[in-house]
Amino acid sequence: MSKPQQQSAPPPMSNRQRKIMERQAEKNRLAAAAKRSSSSSASSSPNPNPLGENTSARTPFREAELQFLARHPVPDFSLALDFRLPAEELLRTYPKVKRVRLNGGKSLSQFSELFGVKEIKDGQDQEEKEVEYAYLHEDHPGLIYIPAAFTPAAQRTLIKGCLKEYSRHPNKSNLDTHYKVPSSGLWDLHENVYLKKQSLDDPAVFVPRKADVDNQANGYGSDDDDDDDDQDGEQDANGKKQENGPRPKPQSHQQPAAKKPKPSNPPQRRAMVPITNETPTVPENVPKIDPEPSSQVPILPPSQLIRKMRWITLGYQYHWPSKTYHFDQNAPFPEELCILSKAVVAAVDNDGDKGKFPYPYPAEDFLAEAGVINYYQLKDRLMGHVDRSELNKHAPLVSFSFGHSCIYLLGGPTREQSPTPILLQSGDILVMTGPCRSAFHGVPRIIEDTLPEYLQQDSTDPEWDIYADYLAEARINLNIRQVYPPKSSTTTTTTSTSDQPVTKNTTALNSPAE
């Protein structure tokens, strides 16, 4: 009888592999303990459910989020407030909604042609020709909603800017943490491949990992690296680590047994610069540690990597870990966005008509200083949060939406207030003023198959095809804020941090608030 073959011993693990396994084992242990604890609590609670969650502990805001997050059965989206209903029907159906004329009785295009001038057709109702009204809501003081504010052509122009122009350096994205994104932006690479100007056989179209570039420059990158690394890599929906793309090659050493020295460059720290006398002061020398780049993020073709771009910050750059601004990092703000946001503020100013808009803000005091472009894929969401990072809480927050529609939940100062679901559609403007600036809000659902026809592929405009292809599975939100109080203001405010959540569905790359 032949002897059974002896299995060869597995190769010894590197220090990095050992640490990863130890961390994963600890995570599994904690997850199992949490599951046992959750199941025990659910079985003893008056309202157990299959998910092991005690429904009696849910806040009204959380209940609303779960309602619209559900995939089976599909939520009833008709429950959301649709500001695009005919005016008479809207005001009759929603008695708490109030219709208000824009400042001076002007149309929105009279404040800026960047909104687009609507064509006048025979027999067309005057309301449909130009946007002359905004809407308020009794339950949400400070909310101002302007539906269908942009013409299709104006929307296309802004969408191109959000994807191509505004995504370039010095503006930063979530991808900049982990990838060596070219200063010309990621969209140009995507466009070159899409138009077949470059092939995927060309290594230059693949954006390298920042960790790989830094390690090669510093002489690091071996699998035997003993440095602690909290990045366990990106996981797919099944919890499996993605191994796309080349891994860093081990470096050769004359003395393999010698332990490599630690990198000489410590984590980058930034401090707030002193603020002028006209503005509130904040603590100086607050450490702002930038996240470490991960060597485990996948190397992807531009068409896939572009869909992992979750946000771009404009103007004053935002430090997401501390939820405060980098006051020493101020990128030039796009001029057309300054004009647009200031025009919106002017349109909702009372101009002496007291009580029309309850929380007016002088347009001459408004200055676009910071902004975020949120890029949502169809399964992404933004959980409930409050924006508290601006020094100026009195200035309006102006928000533009493009692409697919979404459910926007607007609550009150706590999660205990039931939110109002709003159907936020492409071309709509939402303005948060007064108490609304401190209200919980979120986006639990992007609604599939709601891309307007005028944003889909157009045989008469082949240059639009690449943008239509992206929007087929996406929504874009552009929101603009004023960080500092105006120089003429004597109001004092203080900074505070936010419990702002992560937006992403499956990827570990950071995302902001809307």
From TrEMBL:
Polar residues bias spans: 499-514
Cited InterPro entries: Alkb, AlkB-like, AlkB-like_sf, Oxoglu/Fe-dep_dioxygenase_dom
Keyword Methyltransferase among UniProt keywords: no
Manner of cofactor binding, per the entry note: Binds 1 Fe(2+) ion per subunit.
Compositional bias (Acidic residues): 222-235
Region (Disordered): 1-59, 207-299, 485-514
GO MF: dioxygenase activity; metal ion binding
A single Gene Ontology CC term: cytoplasm
Pfam family, any one: 2OG-FeII_Oxy_2
Residue stretches of biased makeup (Low complexity): 31-45, 488-498
Gene3D superfamilies documented for this protein: Alpha-ketoglutarate-dependent dioxygenase AlkB-like (2.60.120.590)
Reported cofactor(s): Fe(2+)
Domain Fe2OG dioxygenase: 362-484
Ligand binding (Fe cation): 385, 387, 441
Keyword annotations: Dioxygenase, Iron, Metal-binding, Oxidoreductase
Superkingdom of the organism of origin: Eukaryota
Name used for this protein in its record: Fe2OG dioxygenase domain-containing protein
Organism: Linnemannia elongata AG-77
